[in-house]
Amino acid sequence: MKKINKLYDYVIYPANLVGCITAIKKSSEGAEVLLLNNYGFPGGELTHSLCCHQYLDDKIISGKTLEIYNQIVDEKHSIFYRYMNQVVINPETVKFVLQKNLEQTNIDLLFHVIPYSITKSKSNYEINLSAKEGQLIYSAKKIIDCSENFALMKLYGINRKLVEANFNLFVSKSGSNGFNIDLSKDEEIVRHHSVKKFVQLFDLRFWVSLKIPIEEEELFLENEAQKILNEYEIYLLTKGARVQLIAPQTYRKYKTETLPDFNEDVSHINSLLMEDFTIEQTFIKSALIEEALKEKEQQNVK
Question: Which of 75, 104, 193, 255 sits 20 to 30 Å CA-CA off 203?
Answer without folding.
Answer: 193
